[in-house]
Amino acid sequence: MGMSYKRAWQFVETMNAMFQEPLVRRIRGGAKGGGTQVTEAGEVVMTEFRTLEAEARRAGEPHVTWLRAMLNDIPERK
After folding, report:
1. In sequence order, which residues have a C-beta less than 8 Å from that of residue 51 and are 6 or more positions away?
2. Which of 22, 38, 61, 72 could bridge 42 with an S-S bond, Cβ 3.0-4.6 Å?
3. 0.70 exceeded by the pTM?
């Protein structure tokens, strides 16, 4: 993901604080090391966000197509 473990956890903790229920749960270590688990609330939020993304993409596509058509042709993609 291109970020440190600490930074990733800061994002997770921020998201967990923003929502009524935690989105990610930390699983304590042990013989197998522990880890994380997306909660039911996290699954619902991810599904809703992916739906929002898809709807925004569909709604914006005609505008993006129009804007691309207005661009100059750039030789060799420079």
Report:
1. none
2. 38
3. yes
